[in-house]
Amino acid sequence: MYVVTAAPVAILLCVVTMLGWGSWANTQKLAGREHWRFELYYWDYALGVLLCAVLFGLTLGSRGPVGPGLFENLSQGAGGSMGYALASGALFNLSNILLVVAIDRAGMAVAFPVGVGLALVIGTIGSYVDTPKGNALLLFAGVALILTAMAVSSLAHRRLPRSSQAGRHGTLFAVLAGCLMGFFYPQLARSISPEFVTQPIAPGMLTPYAALLLFGVGLVASNVVINTVFLRVGGLSYADYFRGSARVHATGLAGGAIWMIALELNIIASGVAGPAVSYALGQGAALVASLWGIFIWKEFRAAPAGTGKLLALMILGYLAGIVAIGAATL
């Protein structure tokens, strides 16, 4: 399998993760312009995640000088490790659907700082407890700065004139999403052999590529239950899904693929940077999504004077937090 051995390369992969995780939601926005409901969009997103996991597993996960290949590792994996990977996919799926609802109701510039920011804090602490790697002082200083940026984002959203029932519900969904999303990454990391770059794969544990393939399977399998509920509540059926155009389906598939490529690179980088630093740096995605929401989708165009200062403070807080987290690996 392919692995990364140099810290600068690992940090670069985390930055790419940040860009991918912060940009995939644009595909939801584009699909929404064609009146494609989020419940329908999410099916294509889930399939994009799984297809990307299969592609990585059959290519980078099956070739290279380190560790066993994909199928060899899957045949040797213990039930506990495989269960962790499958469960992490299901847990992420529920949290991400809630985040998609939050984006639909409150916009990217609010849903990401609140939901993803909260997930960053929970996931970073959980990952560091499991695998303490990196400078703890810098790591948690970065987390504190990002928490501050989250609070400022919420203050900015309250200034919007339309910050009404839909906006408040969107923020609530973002909080629920963040609380759940913070636990998927530590759960996934528990299935992966801890020193997969420098040591043989531990008996019964998985390579990153095998774990991520099972993650994708868990996500799609759970989606049959979770998203069916959202479809029924929303007054939709599977027949509505098949009425979509090729372009709108391709948009959802692209969204899932973008997110999964970012996760694959992030897990590969974690072999050098450590799961806590790798995850925290990747979740700087909230900053990227905020920039998309503010400058491209103009989600704060109706805000009163003075809101721009709050948004600038939020961006600076995220930037400072990301720099501190990146420095924790050095």
- Structural class call reads mainly alpha
**C-alpha termini separation:** 25 Å
Largest sheet: none
How many extended strands?
0
Could you describe the 3D structure shown?
This protein is an all-alpha fold and 330 residues long. It has one domain. The protein contains 14 helices and no strands. Helix 5 crosses helix 9, helix 6 runs antiparallel to helix 12 and helix 13 packs antiparallel against helix 14. The model has no long low-confidence stretch (mean pLDDT 91).
List keywords for this structure.
330 residues, mainly alpha, 77% helix
Question: What is the topology?
Answer:
Layout: H1 7-23, H2 25-33, H3 38-58, H4 70-76, H5 79-106, H6 108-130, H7 136-158, H8 165-190, H9 208-233, H10 238-241, H11 246-273, H12 275-282, H13 285-296, H14 307-327
